[in-house]
Design goal:
This protein has about 375 residues and is an alpha/beta fold. The protein is built from 14 helices and eight strands. The strands form two sheets. Strands 1, 4, 5, 6, 7 and 8 form a six-stranded mixed beta sheet that branches. The chain has a two-stranded antiparallel ribbon with strand order 2-3. Helix 2 (about 25-40) crosses helix 8 (about 120-135), helix 5 crosses helix 7 and helix 8 (about 120-135) packs parallel to helix 14 (about 335-364). The longest helix is centred in the last third of the chain and has 29 residues, at about 335-364.
Amino acid sequence: MRGVDEQQSQIFSYLSPEARVRKDHPLRAIRAMVDEVLTQMSGRFDAMYASVGRPSIAPEKLLRALLLQMLYSIRSERLLMEEMDYNLLFRWFVGLNADDEVGDATTFTKNRDRLLEADVAKQFLAQVVAHAGAQGLTSDEHFTVDGTLLEAWASVKSFQPKAGKNTPPPDDPGNPTVNFHGEKRSNQTHESKTDGDAKLARKGPGKEAKLSYSGNLLVENRNGLIVDAEAFEANGTAERDAALIMLEKLPGTKPVTVGGDKGFDTFGFVAECRNLQVTPHLAQNHARPGGSAIDARTTRHAGYKISQRKRKRIEECFGWLKTVALLRKVRHSGVCKVDWIFTFACAAYNLVRMRNLAAAVRAV
């Protein structure tokens, strides 16, 4: 018979989010890894908070919520709070019961700023990488470096001369009409009035210039996991500078190899790599003045060809970060905040990648 279309609230409810999430849900494996990492970071969290006063939102819940925002491509904290209010899956992952208050989006943002000020993202990524290394998922000898442009949340209209000049009041204060025709603009003479750290940059010849940051990755070649991440100002040499910083932080004393595209094929970068006991497996750029810095001493080895084949995996990382984690256009201003959110998104990518690798092993 046909059921009755009516809803009647029950007096008592014994609903548990744990019981509503199926045992084989993909988030269960990620939640287990996240809990292990956060347990190891507990001492760091204790140092961030005072021993007296009113308790704040637990930093573990904040970080789990930020992970959900990236994993499910939620564009704002306000939407994230709305999803957490009625989504039992989100409540379970963050660590909230069905009857717990979610709170306001502004409260979430203010408490998140404490995590942004601390170096939590770097430590979180390091702990995730260490967890992957303990499972034998990472290589400690062969790596790839590359960078990409992250568009800043600043309008080109805000890119104005550094030396203020007297200009007539705008016709529309909210969205003024600006004519840049015939005006020469550069990072030396102009800066954004809304995001001073954003620089005008373009990825290649013929591409349009946008206010951007430089997001750089160091990826190991075994499974394509991100080992380190750095966000710099897009100053033209940020990719090579960030690569050297990340390579210098690699643990151990044995020689390693690093793959890269033609943009890294400079005599200065190759010399610095060899000083760090790093063998540069870079794509040769014969069109550069003076020719390629990589000669047959490197290209004749079979490992060079393997590094060139493996280095394409780093593009998968950039693709996920820009499309799923919504970093194609960053929502934060300032290189410090952009670096924090970029690094944390890299940790989220690793968690998804590690979960997929574990599922593939179980399937075999």
